[in-house]
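Annex B.
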Amino acid sequence: MPEKIRLDTEFITLGQFLKLAEVIQSGGMAKWFLSEHQVIINGEQDQRRGRKLRAGDKVQIAGIGEFELTE
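S4 domain-containing protein YaaA: predicted structure tokens.
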């Protein structure tokens, strides 16, 4: 069962999501993290830290877990 992450705004970027989900310690780590780990968003691999995520999106990170964004 995916861990649910609640959004308070219309969208957040993938970099902001990684910090919100406590996958990384700081936003500055996002670029490095995305270059080292496979991230799947709604079934498609994506490594753009500026990718906009909205409620309903599903994020899978190899070796870390699955997340679902909710309102």
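The radius of gyration is 11 Å. The domain at 3-70 is CATH 3.10.290.10 (Structural Genomics Hypothetical 15.5 Kd Protein In mrcA-pckA Intergenic Region; Chain A). Further annotation is deferred to the next reporting cycle.
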